[in-house]
Design brief:
The complex is a heterodimer of chains A (about 300) and B (about 675). Chain A is mostly helical and about 300 residues long. Helix content of chain A is about 70%, strand content about 0%. Helices cover about 70% and strands about 5% of the residues of chain B. Chain B is globular. The chains are: A mainly alpha (about 300), B mainly alpha (about 675). The interface between A and B is large, with 78 and 80 residues.
C-alpha cells in the first residue's frame, strides 16, 4: 500500500508548488516515471565504497515498509502487522537514518560526509520532539499503540483539544525535519552548502538511487498518514463493508491531501532556515510536547 | 536434572580455585611468554566457563547457597552468599570473562617481548576472581577486602603498559579516585556496622529497620559516592575516560563491561534489599544522577576522537540509563508500588546485562583496530571495512545495539526503561511526575545522540579511504579474536530477539532476596513472542520485528534482483568536482560532531585555540604554520577536583607544622596521646 501511493504524493506536492509559482509543473505521476527510469538504468559505484553502499538502500527501504505495516493507515482500521508501539516506530526510523548516514560517508566524498553529519545532528534532536509528540496522546489513550491512540483521538473529546493542537504542532515540526522538508532541508536543491538528504544520496545511481528516493517518498507518506490519522480527529474506524471502505479512503485521502497542501504552501512561502536556527525549532517541538503532557495527566 | 546447592557450591569454589591456579601458573611461567599466555588465559577461560555454569544453573533452578568459613578473627571469617542477584552478576562476569580470555589469546601476542605476559595473566585472573568475590560476599568486611583486591588488580592492569608515561598518569588518577571511593564506602560500612552491631548482610537486613533515619541518610550518601565513583557517575567519572583506554583491550572490555557494574550490584543490594525503602528523595537522587550522566556522557563521547575514550564515555552514558531504571524502581519501592518497582529493577538489570555484552564487543572491535593501526585516534583510521571486513561487520552490530536500534538487545532494555519512566508519569502526580518527564526527555535525547556518535565512530573508522599509512596496511585480526567478537555479536541479536525470555530470567533473579517485592506480580508480563505491560499500555514483539525485517529485506532484494538483474555496475571514482580527491577531504570525526557541539555549546563549552605563524612579521599574508586546537573545557577538574586538591594541600601544609623532625618530639606526642587516653578512660 505505502510504496504504491507514495510517489503520487510527491507528485502532488510538486504540482501544488509548481502552480503556486505560476508554472504548469510536471504530471502528478511523474515520480513513477522517474523511478521506472532509474530502475532501468545502469549504476555507477564509487571504487571507495563498500558493502554498506550496496546494502543500505535495501535496509532503508525495508525500514519504511515495516513502519508502513505497523501504523494505522486506513483510518484506524488497519491491523498492525507487527507492533503499533510508537517507541518501536521511532527507533525503526532510526534504523533507516543510521544506514542512510553511513551510506553518505561510505564513498569518502566531502558532500556525503557533511550530509551525514547534518542528518545525524538533526535526527538526534528530532527524536526527542517526535517521541514527545506521541507521548501525551499515548498517556491520554492509556496505550502506546498508535491504532488505539487514533481511536481515542478520533471523537475529539473537549479535554483533548488543547493538547492535540500542541502535539500536532510538535509533530509537524518533527515531521518536516524527518522528511527533509522546508525549513530543514530543501528536497529540490543540489546546492552543496545547504543540502542534507540529497547530499547523502549523491553517490547513488540507478536502481539503488531509485530505492533510496522511493524510501524517502514512503517516509513522507507515512508521516503524513500518521499526522492525518493520529493527530487529526475524525478518523473513521471499523471497515465492515465496501461503503465504509470508500468513506475511509475518502476521509484519509482528504486529510493527507490537506497536510500535503500545507507542506507545499509552507515550502512556497518561507525560506530554508540557517542550520543553527533549526535546533531552536526542534527544542520548541519537544517543549510543546512537554506542555501537552500537563494537559493530559 | 536438579541442581542442588552442594553441587553449585563446589562449582563455584572450583571456579575460584581455577582463577588462583591461573594466576600462580602464569606468574610461574613468566619466563616463557607463550606458556604464560596459554596458562593465564586458558585457565581463565575454563574458570569463566565454570563460573558461567554456576551462575546460569543457579538462575535456572533458582537455587542459591551460603557458605561460612568462620574463624575467631572477624577479618578472616568469610561468608559467601549466592542468591538470584549474585547469580545474575556471576553469570555476567563469567560470560564477559570467558569471551575476553578467548580474545586475549590473540590479542596479548603483540605485548610479547615488550611486557611481561606472566604478570598480566596473574593480575587478570586475580581481577576475575575478585569481581566474583565482590558479588558473592555476604559480609561487608569481606566485601571491602574483595573490593580492594579488585581495585588493586585493575590498577595494575591499567598500568600494564607502564613504559608509556600517559598510562602511568591515568593509572595514578584511577588509583586516587578508586581509593577515595573506597574511603567513603569504608566509612559507610563502619556506620552501618555500628548501628546494627554486625558486618553480616543477613543480620543487617533484619536489624535495618531500627537504624535511625539520619544514620540511614548518611549511609545512603556515603555509599552513593563510594559506589558511584566505581560506576563512573558524573561528576565522579574523571578517572574512567583515561583509565579504560590505558588498560589492555580485553581488560578494558571487562572494566567497562562488568567492573563498573559491581557498583550497580552493590547499589541494588543495599538500596533494594538490605536497607528498608528510603524516602522518595533517594530514588529521585539516583534518577537525577542517571539523567545527567546519560545525557552528559553521550555529549562528551561525541567530542572524543580517541576511540577507547569515546567508548568509555558511552559507559558513563549507559550507567546513567541503568540508574534511570534503578532510580525509578527505588521511587516506586518507597511509594509501595511493588509491581512497578519490579519493572524498573528489571529494566535496570536487563540494561546492565546488555550493556556489558555490546560494550565488550565494541571495546574488542576497537582493540582489534588499534592492534593493527597502532593508534587510538580515529582521525587516522578510515577505509578499514575493506581491510578488516569481519571486525567492521561485528563493530557495526555493536554500534546498532548501543544506539538502541531494533532488533538488537540495546533497544529491548531501553524500551523497558522507557516503560518504567512512562509508568511514573502515568501514576504519580505533581513534582514527581515532572521528574519522570525530565528523565524520559533525557533518555530520548540520549538515544538520538548515541546513534549520531556511532555513525561518526563507525563511519570515520571503517568507511571511505584510509587516512594514514597504518590504516592503509591494516589486515584482519586472528581467528580467536574474531570468534570472541562473533559470540558477543550473536548474543546482542539473540538477547534482543528473545528479550522476553531473558527479561523473565532476570526477573526470577529476584529469588532469595527482594522479599518485599517478590510476592507481587510485576507490572509487565512476558510471552514467548512479546513483552508487554499488564495494563495494556505497550507491547514489544521483538521476534515479530526481526522476522518482519528479514522477510521484507529478502523480498525486496529478490524482487530488485529479478527486475533489474541485468543492469551493469560501473566502478568509478567518487564525485570529486574536478579535483583530485584526497583522504584529507573526507569528513573527520571532529568535523562530524562539530555541529552537535555547537548546538550544545552551553553545556560543553567548546574551546578553540588558534596559533598562526607568519613568514614575515610585517607582511601578514603568508603563513608558515597554522594550528587550530579544538577542545572542550573540563569543568570537573577546574571546578571540583582542583579546589579539593588545593584544599588538601593547604591542610597538609598546616599538619606538616607538627612534624618538625627530632625523634624526641614524636616521643612527646606519643606520651601526650597516652595520657589523654588514660584520662578519658578514667573519666568514663
Amino acid at each position: 500500500m505505502t510504496p504504491l501511493l507514495s510517489p503520487l504524493l510527491i507528485g502532488v506536492v510538486r504540482k501544488i508548488k509548481a502552480r503556486m509559482q505560476n508554472r504548469q509543473g510536471a504530471s502528478v505521476f511523474q515520480p513513477y516515471l522517474d523511478l521506472w527510469k532509474l530502475f532501468r538504468k545502469d549504476e555507477t559505484v564509487s571504487k571507495d565504497a563498500s558493502w554498506i553502499t550496496a546494502f543500505a538502500p535495501y535496509i532503508v527501504f525495508t525500514a519504511t515498509l515495516i513502519i508502513g505495516a505497523s501504523i494505522p493507515i486506513l483510518g484506524s482500521a488497519s491491523i498492525p502487522f507487527i507492533s503499533g508501539d510508537f517507541l518501536t516506530i521511532v527507533y525503526l526510523l532510526a534504523l533507516g537514518t543510521f544506514f542512510l548516514a553511513l551510506a553518505g560517508m561510505d564513498a569518502g566524498g566531502g558532500f556525503g560526509g557533511f550530509g551525514a553529519s547534518r542528518e545525524m545532528t538533526l535526527a538526534a534532536i528530532t527524536e526527542g520532539g517526535l517521541l514527545f509528540s506521541f507521548l501525551p496522546l499515548a498517556l491520554y489513550a492509556g496505550s502506546s499503540d498508535l491504532e488505539t491512540i487514533a481511536a481515542a483521538v478520533s471523537p475529539l473529546p473537549s479535554a483533548l483539544v488543547i493538547p492535540l493542537a500542541l502535539t500536532f504542532g510538535a509533530y509537524v515540526i518533527s515531521m518536516l525535519s524527518e522528511t527533509a522538508r522546508f525549513p530543514f532541508d530543501n528536497p529540490a536543491t543540489h546546492l552543496e552548502l545547504t543540502m542534507i538528504h540529497e547530499a547523502m544520496l549523491l553517490e547513488y545511481s540507478g536502481k539503488k538511487l531509485a530505492l533510496m528516493e522511493w524510501a524517502s517518498a514512503n517516509k513522507f507518506l507515512l508521516f503524513l498518514v500518521l499526522g492525518a490519522n493520529v493527530f487529526m480527529p475524525w478518523t473513521p474506524s471499523g471497515i465492515s463493508n465496501s461503503t465504509d471502505l470508500v468513506l475511509v479512503l475518502l476521509v484519509t485521502g482528504l486529510k493527507v491531501f490537506a497536510l500535503a497542501a500545507g507542506v507545499a504552501l509552507l515550502e512556497s512561502s518561507i525560506a530554508k532556515f540557517r542550520f543553527f536556527r533549526l535546533p531552536d525549532l526542534l527544542f520548541g517541538s519537544f517543549i510543546l510536547g512537554v506542555i501537552a503532557i500537563s494537559f493530559v495527566v | 536434572m536438579h541442581m542442588n546447592p552442594a553441587t553449585l557450591q563446589s562449582l563455584f569454589f572450583s571456579t575460584l580455585v581455577l582463577f588462583v591456579l591461573g594466576a600462580l601458573g602464569s606468574l610461574m611461567s613468566q619466563k616463557k611468554s607463550n606458556a604464560a599466555n596459554l596458562i593465564g588465559n586458558g585457565i581463565a577461560l575454563i574458570g569463566s566457563a565454570l563460573g558461567l555454569m554456576t551462575g546460569v544453573s543457579s538462575l535456572l533452578w533458582r537455587t542459591g547457597f551460603q557458605t561460612k568459613l568462620s574463624s575467631p578473627l572477624p577479618l578472616l571469617s568469610y561468608t559467601f552468599t549466592v542468591d538470584g542477584l549474585s547469580a545474575l552478576f556471576i553469570s555476567l562476569i563469567s560470560l564477559i570473562g570467558l569471551v575476553s580470555s578467548l580474545y586475549a589469546f590473540g590479542y596479548v601476542r603483540h605485548f610479547e617481548g615488550k611486557y611481561n605476559l606472566g604478570t598480566l595473566g596473574f593480575f587478570y585472573n586475580i581481577f576475575l576472581a575478585s569481581m566474583l568475590l565482590v558479588v558473592t560476599s555476604g559480609n561487608l568486611l569481606f566485601f571491602l577486602v574483595s573490593w580492594e583486591i579488585m581495585s588493586l588488580a585493575s590498577y595494575f592492569l591499567v598500568i600494564y603498559e607502564h613504559k608509556d608515561p600517559s598510562v602511568v598518569r591515568a593509572g595514578t588518577l584511577y588509583f586516587i579516585m578508586t581509593h577515595a571511593g573506597t574511603a567513603f564506602l569504608t566509612l559507610a560500612v563502619l556506620i552501618l556496622a555500628g548501628a546494627t552491631g554486625s558486618f553480616d548482610l543477613a543480620v543487617i537486613r533484619q536489624m535495618s529497620a531500627s537504624i535511625p533515619d539520619l544514620t540511614r541518610l548518611a549511609i545512603f550518601v556515603l555509599t552513593l559516592i563510594g559506589l558511584g565513583t566505581k560506576s563512573g557517575i558524573i561528576p565522579l567519572h574523571i578517572w574512567l575516560p583515561s583509565a579504560h583506554p590505558a588498560a589492555p583491550t580485553h581488560v578494558s572490555a571487562l572494566m567497562s563491561g562488568v567492573m563498573i557494574k559491581t557498583g550497580i550490584y552493590m547499589m541494588v543490594r543495599l538500596y533494594m534489599d538490605v536497607l528498608p525503602p528510603g524516602p522518595v528523595g533517594w530514588g529521585f537522587t539516583v534518577l537525577g544522577i542517571g539523567a545527567v550522566s546519560s545525557l552528559l556522557g553521550v555529549l562528551y563521547a561525541l567530542t572524543e576522537h580517541d576511540i577507547k575514550k569515546l567508548l568509555a564515555f558511552h559507559s558513563i552514558e549507559n550507567i546513567g540509563i541503568i540508574l534511570l531504571g534503578l532510580g525509578s524502581a527505588m521511587i516506586f519501592d518507597s511509594l509501595g508500588m511493588k509491581s512497578l518497582a519490579i519493572l524498573g529493577l528489571t529494566a535496570s538489570l536487563f540494561h546492565t546485562v546488555n550493556h556489558a555484552i555490546f560494550k565488550a564487543l565494541l571495546f574488542m572491535g576497537a582493540g582489534a583496530v588499534i592492534s593493527k593501526t597502532h593508534t587510538r585516534n580515529i582521525e587516522e583510521y578510515g577505509g578499514l571495512i575493506k581491510r578488516m571486513p569481519y571486525t567492521a561487520g561485528l563493530f557495526l552490530i555493536g554500534s546498532l545495539a548501543i544506539s538502541a536500534i531494533p532488533p538488537f538487545n540495546g533497544f529491548a532494555s531501553e524500551w523497558l526503561t522507557y516503560q518504567a519512566l512512562f509508568a511514573g508519569i502515568r501514576t504519580l502526580d505533581t513534582y514527581m511526575l515532572w521528574a519522570f518527564v525530565a528523565a524520559s526527555g533525557s533518555l530520548a535525547f540520549t538515544g538520538g545522540l548515541a546513534a549520531a556518535c556511532f555513525v561518526k565512530a563507525f563511519g570515520t573508522t571503517f568507511l571511505a579511504r584510509p587516512r594514514s599509512t597504518h590504516a592503509e596496511h591494516a589486515t584482519e585480526v586472528p581467528m580467536t579474536m574474531r570468534f570472541a567478537m562473533g559470540i558477543l555479536a550473536a548474543l546482542t541479536l539473540l538477547i534482543g530477539v528473545f528479550s522476553s525470555a531473558i527479561s523473565g530470567t532476570i526477573f526470577t533473579s529476584g529469588f532469595g532476596w527482594m522479599e518485599r517485592v517478590q510476592q507481587t506480580n510485576a507490572a509487565y508480563y512476558q510471552e514467548p513472542q512479546f513483552l508487554a505491560l499488564r495494563d495494556g499500555f505497550a507491547r514489544l514483539p521483538m521476534p515479530g520485528i526481526l522476522s518482519g525485517l528479514t522477510i521484507t529485506l529478502l523480498g525486496i532484494f529478490i524482487l530488485t534482483k529479478l527486475f533489474t538483474g541485468n543492469r551493469k555496475i560501473v566502478v568509478a571514482d567518487t564525485w570529486d568536482c574536478g579535483t583530485t580527491l584526497t583522504p584529507r577531504m573526507e569528513i573527520t570525526a571532529t568535523g562530524f560532531s562539530r555541529s552537535i557541539i555547537t548546538i550544545f555549546k552551553g553545556i560543553l563549552r567548546p574551546t578553540k585555540q588558534v596559533s598562526i605563524e607568519y613568514h614575515d612579521a610585517d607582511m601578514r599574508y603568508f603563513t608558515s604554520s597554522n594550528e587550530v586546537k579544538l577542545g572542550i573545557s573540563d569543568p570537573y577538574r577546574s571546578g571540583i577536583y582542583r579546589p579539593v586538591a588545593l584544599m588538601l594541600m593547604r591542610l597538609s601544609g598546616i599538619i606538616k607544622k607538627v612534624q618538625i623532625g627530632p625523634v624526641n618530639t614524636y616521643v612527646l606526642y606519643m606520651f601526650m596521646a597516652l595520657i589523654i587516653l588514660l584520662v578519658t578512660l578514667a573519666i568514663r
